[in-house]
Structures are given as structure tokens and as C-alpha cells.
Amino acid sequence: MYRGLRRGRAIPERYIPAPEQRMDLYRRIARVRTQEEGDDITDELIDRYGDPPVGVANLIDIALLRARAAALGITELVQKEGSLRFSLPQPDFAKVAAVCGLESTRAASSFRRRQALSVPAAEKKGTTC
Q1: Is-above-0.70 flag for pTM?
Q2: What is the pLDDT along the chain (129 residues), one digit of tens a residue?
Q3: Exposure winner among 15, 76, 117, 126, fewest CB in 10 A?
């Protein structure tokens, strides 16, 4: 699912030339909460414009990751220097492991003050975080 927060994440003008249509798509992607919604947008884009560029797929992946994190109570998700920082009102390592697909979050992360957790950002296709 995840292709990387740091990689391209934009809708190129060459893919959707009309600015109002690009802005509408940004808004629609921001509202994506389920894989089905993401797939529906992708199918629509393929029908209208052809295969979406990587940046568009990344936007959908990021929206899904943020929705999944929010559903688990993670209030902030930020990538910085090869790691993802999660902010949790009540630290729950099981929730972070669920988002990241990690077997042992404690072994792969570092807990910091203010209830933020950083984990290495995966850059391989097929990983969640």
C-alpha cells in the first residue's frame, strides 16, 4: 500500500490540465477513508485520464494511512529524516503496531517525550509505514 511520504505527492498539470479539476481531486483524495474509496477514485482516474502517475497514487496512500492512524487514535503523523513520528494522547504500542504492521513496535521504535513515537519509515512497496 505505502509508497513513501517523501516521494512525489502531487497531481501533475500534464495529467489533469484544468486547475479546478486538480483542486477538486485534491479535495476528494483528502476525504478518502477506506481502500474501497481509494480504489474508486483510482478507477475513475484511469477511465478519464489514463493510469495515474506515482504522485497521485502516493496521495491516495497517504490519505489512507492518515485515516487508519486517526481511526486508531493517532493524532499526528509526520515524516522526518527517514522516520515517521506518531503522536498519541494515550500511548498504546498495539495501536502503533497495527498501523505499521510491526510485530514488535518497541523493538523498532523509540518513545519520546510528549507521547510521540518515531518508527523507521519503510520505503518498500507492500509495507504499511
Answers
A1: no
A2: 344 455 568 999 999 999 999 999 999 999 999 999 999 999 999 999 999 999 999 899 889 988 988 887 788 877 777 777 777 777 666 766 666 665 443 434 444 444 555 555 554 444 444
A3: 126
